[in-house]
Amino acid sequence: MLEALVAWIEASGPAVYLLAPLFTVAVAIPAEIPAMLNGMAFGPYWGTLVTWMSAMAGAQISFELAQRFGRPLAERFIPDAALVKTDRLVTRAGWPLLLGLRLLPTVAFTAINWGAGLTRMRRITFFWTTAVGILPGALVFTATGAGLGSLLSEAGGPTLTVAATFATIIVMAVMTVWLFRSSTAE
Questions:
Q1: Cα 102 to chain center, whole Å?
Q2: Residue 171 and residue 74: Cα distance in Å, rounded?
Q3: Which residues contact 65 (CB under 8 A, 6 or more apart)?
């Protein structure tokens, strides 16, 4: 069965990885996981391109959904004064704020997408700061995945690579749930 999964992933190519943002829009998966998987599957160069393109698509989808549906919802539940203050802060801070947040590895990618969409940030500002700001992380994590993929392939072939990939995803998912539960319990 694992061999059939490997064959399916190899036959699907980048299309599977380019469509992944449609899933990650709804589920906050750490951006490092798809980047490393892309590195394992496509190597450091093509993997970085696939990572960057899919991350840009996911970011833009999140931003657009937040502007279209999240902002009106926020306007119903958050006092006008708070929204105006936030919009003013974002406008005053401008593009350096978003670019700086994108370059910080400790700030959640998905949170920035949705948060920016709740403000009056201009679409073009969001787009270009995201395009520039995510590139260093895409390069680093995709290259890491490529190196890990090479190491695992030498150790045991593609079956071991796929097994290690799924094990990594499961560990990251469990850690995410555990961290979320421990942070909300406080």
A1: 11
A2: 34
A3: 25, 114, 117
For the chain, percent helix, then strand, then coil, each to nearest 5? 90, 0, 10
Least confident piece of the model among 103-112, 117-126, 134-143, 174-183: 174-183
- Looking at the chain, how many residues does it have? 186
Tell me which residue of 108, 118, 134 sits closest to 29, measured CA to CA. Answer: 108
Q: Would you place residue 37 in the very low, low, confident or very high pLDDT band (cuts 50, 70, 90)? A: confident
| Rounded Cα distance, 127 and 59, in Å | 8
At 25 the pLDDT is 60
3-state secondary structure of 72: helix
> What distance lies between CA 42 and its chain's CA centroid?
18
Q: How far apart are CA 136 and CA 142, in angstroms?
A: 10
- Encode pLDDT of 166-181 as tens digits: 666 677 677 777 776 7
Structural domain of residue 38, as residue ranges? 2-185
Number of domains the chain is built from:
1
Rounded Cα gap, residues 183 and 186, in angstroms: 6
The rounded radius of gyration (Å) of the Cα atoms in the chain is 18
Confidence class of residue 2 from pLDDT cuts 50, 70 and 90?
very low
